[in-house]
Design goal:
With 431 residues, this protein is an alpha/beta fold. The chain has helices at 3-15, 18-25, 29-43, 60-87, 100-104, 107-118, 131-140, 177-180, 205-216, 229-237, 282-285, 293-303, 313-324, 340-344, 367-376, 379-388, 408-419; strands at residues 48-49, 57-58, 91-98, 121-128, 145-149, 158-173, 193-194, 221-222, 243-246, 257-260, 268-276, 306-309, 329-332, 351-354, 393-395, 400-403, 427-430.
């Protein structure tokens, strides 16, 4: 028996008329007769009484067989729908691993919640585990998705993409002299002991502490590695050593701990989304991006306060200003580097502002908008940024101001505001 034969039988049983049944099925009447004959041959029984003058009617066998045929067709339809949903990643099972720091600030829960809202039929299993083990489990096929810390290299079976960049903070005992210092420089850490979790070397924290030591002119001394970051913080609070943790550790609010940025040195760690390169389960394939624009947009709102498209002059300046105001900002740029037009402006020296600029130089449906914007940030305010960054400039005709050196100095200034090299690290850009 074939499903098309059963479907033909069902429609003919409902219509009791070959011409109407053929029309519903999109077939010629001869096609309906052929399918019905094939089904009757398989069953070894007539399903309809039909004659040239008599009306088509179900036989006793046909009447008994009809509900069974309908049940088979409904089950087949359910199976097809189930298979299609599974292929789209709407049902199934998903094994997700995550590092503890991805849970501290709600990143992991935000991603999983938005996925669950978009695909409620998928059974989700969560596993907290360190980066090296996640990579092993993903490569072996026992884990579908991993939220882990970036490292120098990955197994060939694993594909990764960046989710967000976290500043690394120095963990100090709250009552210590270093914690009370107005600023913390690498040189002040000479002679201090440090403690890392046992996976710290593979996750890149050891390399960053060595970079800290190089900046401060010392070789870091380490205590025996411990199980996890909570143990690190416990040792730090007890005054045994200093630690280095991702910025989400602020969310823990652990007593006896002071988390500080290091003045003059930016250390960070990227949170990555990892999965298998091949043999994706459908739920895994739909985890990122999430099904549906509404779910993707909602997930981005959980991670960022503002998303700016274009890392040009306006985009970078806006992102830096929002970052200084404490906003979480993502800048998206399709080009190979930010500020491409800045680099070619003014013959490579960037006409960065004009002294006599005013609202009359701008077109706007609201003429007061330009007045308000220019009053809030004037040419003198930008010159103050230039002077603070040590960028020399000169005036040409009509009050046009240019860099003495290269336009790259302007890009570097905007990126410094964006990336927190000279301010709070509250924003980042990515291609």
């Amino acid at each position: 028996m074939e499903l098309r034969e059963l479907r033909c039988f069902e429609v003919l049983a409902e219509e009791l008329h070959f011409a109407r049944a053929a029309e519903r099925l999109g077939l010629a009447q001869s096609g309906v007769s052929r399918l019905l004959a094939g089904l009757e041959t398989d069953l070894g029984a007539k399903l309809f009484n039909r004659g040239k003058r008599s009306q088509v009617a179900l036989t006793t066998t046909g009447a008994l067989f009809l509900p069974e045929a309908q049940a088979i067709l409904r089950q087949a339809a359910r199976a097809e729908a189930l298979g299609r949903r599974a292929a789209r990643g709407e049902i199934g099972r998903l094994e997700i691993g995550f590092v503890a720091s991805a849970a501290w600030d709600g990143t992991a829960s935000a991603l999983v919640r938005r996925y669950h809202e978009a695909a409620p039929g998928v059974e989700i299993h969560l596993h907290e585990m360190e980066t090296p083990r996640q990579l092993q489990e993903i490569a072996a096929g026992r884990l579908d998705i991993g939220l882990l810390r970036a490292r120098a290299d990955y197994p060939p079976e694993v594909s990764v993409r960046a989710l967000k960049h976290d500043t690394l903070l120095l963990a100090l005992a709250a009552g210590s002299a270093l914690a009370k210092a107005p600023k913390l420089t690498p040189e002040m850490l000479k002679g201090e002991k440090f403690i890392l979790p046992h996976f710290g070397e593979e996750a890149g924290f050891l390399a960053r502490l060595r970079a800290l030591g190089q900046a401060g002119g010392f070789t870091p001394e380490f205590l025996t590695p411990v199980r996890d970051f909570i143990t690190v913080l416990t040792a730090v609070a007890a005054g045994l050593a200093l630690g280095l943790l991702p910025e989400p550790a602020k969310s823990l609010g652990m007593p006896g701990i002071a988390l500080r940025e290091i003045d003059g040195l930016r250390l960070d760690s990227t949170l990555m989304l990892a999965s298998r390169r091949a043999e994706h389960s459908p739920p895994c394939g739909s985890f990122w991006p999430w099904p549906g624009q509404r779910a993707r947009t909602a997930a981005m709102r959980d991670l960022y306060d503002a998303i700016i498209i274009g890392a040009g002059a306006a985009g970078l300046f806006c992102a830096g200003s929002a970052g200084l105001a404490g906003q979480r900002v993502l800048v998206l740029e399709h080009g190979p580097e930010p500020g491409r037009k800045i680099l070619i402006s003014g013959g490579g020296r960037c006409n960065f502002t004009n002294l006599d600029v005013s609202a009359r130089n701008f077109l706007s449906a609201n003429p007061h908008f330009a007045k308000s914007a220019l009053a809030g940030f004037t040419a003198k305010d930008f010159l103050a940024l230039m002077d603070a960054a040590g960028i020399a400039w000169h005036e040409k005709t009509l009050g046009q101001l240019f860099c003495d050196g290269s336009a790259r100095q302007i890009v570097a200034l905007l990126l410094a505001r964006l990336q927190g090299l000279s301010c709070a690290p509250a924003a980042a850009w990515t291609r």
